Amino acid sequence: MRTKFSSRILAASSVLALGLTATACGGAKTGDTATSESCVDTSGDTIKIGFLNSLSGTMAISETTVFKSLSMAAKEINADGGVLGKKLEIVSEDGQSEPTVFAEKATKLIQDDCVAAVFGGWTSSSRKAMLPVFEGNDALLFYPVQYEGLESSHNIFYTGATTNQQIIPALDFLKQEKKIKSIFLVGSDYVFPRTANKIIKQYAAANGIKVLGEEYQPLGSTDFGTVVDKVKAAGADAVFNTLNGDSNVAFFKEYKGKGLTASAMPVLSVSIAEEEVPGVGVGNLEGQYTAWNYYQTIDSPTNQKFVTDFKAANGAKAVTSDPMEAAYTSLYLWKGMVEKADSFDVEDVIDASDGVSYDAPEGTVEVDGENHHIAKTALIGQVNSEGLIDTVWSSDKPIEPDPYLKSYDWWKN
Amino acid sequence: MDALLAQVFTGISAGAVLLLIALGLTLTFGQMGVINMAHGEFIMAGAYTAYVVSTIVASTELSLLIALPAGFVIGGLLGLALEASVLRWMYARPLDTLLVTYGVGLVLQQVARDIFGAPAKEVPAPGWLDGSIPILGYDFPLTRLFIIVLAGLCVAALLAVLRFTALGREIRATVGNRDLAETIGISTRRTDQATFFIGSGLAGVAGVALTLLGSTGPNLGTSYIVQAFLVVVVGGIGHLKGTIVAALGIGLLQAFLAHALTGSVAQVIVFLAIVAFLQLRPQGILSVRTRSLA
Amino acid sequence: MKKLYPYVGWLLLAIGLLVLAPAVLSDFRLGLLAKYCCYAIAAVGIGLAWGRGGMLVLGQGLYFGIGAYAMAMHLKLADAGPGGVPDFMALYGDAAVPGWWEPLRSGALAVVVILVLPALVAGLLGLAVFKRRIKGAYFAILSQALAAAFAILLVGQVKTTGGANGLNNFQGFFGYALFDPANKRMLYFLAAGILLVSILAMAWLYRTRFGELLVAVRDGEERVRFLGTDPANVKLAAYVIAAVLASIGGALFVPIAGIVSPDDVGVVASIGLLAGVALGGRASLLGPAVGALLVGYAETTLSEAFPGSWSYFQGALFVLVILLLPGGLAQLLGLVGRANAHRGDSASDHSPRGVPRGKRGETEVSRSASEEAAAR
């Protein structure tokens, strides 16, 4: 009897479920176009914006500092009267270092909190996860980290460097200043290093530089015995390092342990900023090169104020770095766009974006309304004995962003 | 020849790291049936101990030597606390200890993040471990040599304790036959605690040593825990000799594969190889039936 | 009367999911609930394998991932159109669709892959593992290692799997546009409906001879062997069913969450799937599903209220529930019947501490005797 009873329920419920499913199918078919209405509330004397950074998980190591500098910018703006007379109200969410969570929290910020713009993201995967959310809801994201380029979304502003503002200048530096004839590529196994190395290999081929090896380690890997052996055996003139996070620590300790030095075989890194230097160890990094658009040591009144304020808010030991500065700048750029548009509406803000500029700690930056990146000056730095980074080479003027590398004839995607 | 030699050395030193992190697990997992997923966080605690010691002791030459016993004590105390507060109630449910200790591990990670901050900390290596020495023409980093020696010392010390001390005899007796051990007046409760103290303490030592190779951050433990368990399982639960063979074997396999292929693929193949190996020898390299330690 | 008890609970759950939730929740919240339903479908399978079968399946992310990636690959190919190449391949890869993707162009084949591939993988693995009598902790760690290997493999293949980014940005789901809220609701009903049906299927399964045998294997594997049934086959069947359910959950997860990445299938995600099962009550009928829904809800609300602190809550949940409430919420409500929750998952375990203290000596002897007998 029991079995019979339950199978009857089973049958009944299947019909129920399928029936409900069928009746619910009234929606649009693929190929229709999306329409979405913004729920941003501009009636009060505050305006909501969202911060979406990983405060837990593996990326918290980097993203908490971005959160701090964004908070500092918001405080400054509020103390200064807000944006269009409205005070900023921050809704902060934790991306938990997982792309899926980034997508979920971005949706929440847009649909549930009705924020006017979202600031955050760090890894390529977090940005890629959020991209369809922002495009589908026609909302605004400000992404503050250097990345692999080849992207230009209508709904995203990229305030970190694209490849022609960081990687290509770094290669120019190695070629012109260090006169390298060969190079070894080391990276974490994910999208940014692989895309960066694709660019580097084509640059090298066009400029007569030999690529002697290309090694990838899983994200978070700390076993670099084999990789460093290969680097050493290859004997390249320089190493181009696109490792991420903890792997850098293991790599540089092994590098030094095997007797490789900055003077004999310099390493140029694109993911090590002031924040990461103490973790790797100043002794292991001194003399090595980095490529960014901002260093704490930049000597300008704007930057001195930025550094002083940041230390006042976060302790004397706190350091400032490129992604933090780009995040800080992104909030001011959004403010500039909103004020120029005299509206919080996403389309109005995007329409007004072209030419908006800001006197940032890194120097004056200007938004390119076409590709949503900003013009930035490339700076090659060298780690000094205090763990800070001194500029040793500069592109002298801001480089126009070219995310698809259209102006480089050697580039074939 | 040179490349071959390099891989053998890299493999041995990777194996020594695995041995160091798996040694404590062999004790707690093998002898007590407790699957301690928080072992990784005890390793992390050891690494942070090294960091704290390095901020107190000005001399980097000495701080490592002070940090090693300190790490042992901190790891051991954490283990003792875990045993006393949670695990003692769960000996009848060994599989469940896995999830409970995983939860403890999550909390410990976040605690570390709140105390020390998310960014990795630097633990400076002592000057006498700077550089490398040539062995058969291969420049062997002194830090890696140190870890091999340390792993060897830990194994020797553990064997000595188990063989030659009263405590060791009690542990072996309890493992061999708990009821008989109790009948002859051994406090199995106390023995359990001692075992857990030693096992967790070894995790602390491993943590101190790992600061020489990698970063000191809240996620330190998670990157090692799965591998550590695999070493114990392959070695045959509860077998020191098996663990040593397994650690070196996996280290060498990984080194050779990583040389020939990419790091990612090497890891995947190692995992699959282990699964396949256990099909052939489900009880590990050494049979577990006698359940003796050495 | 007592036999009707679970069905009353099921009916309440059905009313809650199919009537109440759609009526009161916003589109966004309903979408989240749909996501929890996907986890809950996987949890129902874990309830069978772990709660009833005593197999600690630490690597269900592997099967969740098989379903999810199969679905995601199909959606990417469908978006690209006939003969088209998914967008990310043009960006990172060789702008050519690899051969092993091609079969998934067909929606029907994709559904077959989602249902059959996990069954094949679990079947092969289970056959090897259970026939060799690998159990307890060995099995748990092996399954965890497989999930870890799977995630590393996915990360390493940027050109063909999207690497750490995973696959996302899906436009349509079998012809329905995914940006349309009406279709999102349809997906919710699909997920909730499949969840409810799978619970009913379990209710039936638990009452069959197989269900009884499974509990018997959990509580005394050797005794079942002596009675003339090979425990390996029973465990294998339960493991395969759990794998297929996880795969279905994963397949539905993709259009609902709009993304799948290696983080969703690795070690951490796999253990995360267990949290709900433990909370709800692993051996009860409704426990795993309700627990998974609750954990999903708690994760969202707590991480919104206290950003950065979810680890504390999740850690505390594991410790408190498993330590104090091994039968989960079902135990609290007295819903656990004769196949009660936490007995037994140890009796067949290899651990020296696996058996109650008093009986240890004799059990040991009889077990090794029986093993030798069986080995002959």
TrEMBL record, chain A:
Signal peptide: 1-24
This protein's record includes keyword Signal: yes
SUPFAM superfamilies: Periplasmic binding protein-like I (SSF53822)
Pfam families reported in the protein's UniProt record: Peripla_BP_5
Keywords annotated in UniProt: Signal
Tree of life domain: Bacteria
Keyword presence, Signal: yes
Name of this chain's protein: Urea ABC transporter substrate-binding protein
Native organism: Nocardioides luteus
Automatic annotation (TrEMBL), chain B:
Key words of the record: Amino-acid transport, Cell membrane, Membrane, Transmembrane, Transmembrane helix, Transport
Chief location bin: membrane
Xref: InterPro entries: ABC_transp_permease (IPR001851), ABC_UrtB_bac (IPR017779), BCAA_transport_permease (IPR052157)
Membrane topology: Multi-pass membrane protein
Keyword Nuclease belongs to the record: no
Record Pfam families: BPD_transp_2 (PF02653)
Entry's transmembrane regions: 6-30, 42-58, 64-82, 142-162, 194-213, 225-253, 260-280
Similarity comment text for this entry: Belongs to the binding-protein-dependent transport system permease family. LivHM subfamily.
Protein name in UniProt: Urea ABC transporter permease subunit UrtB
Organism the protein comes from: Nocardioides luteus
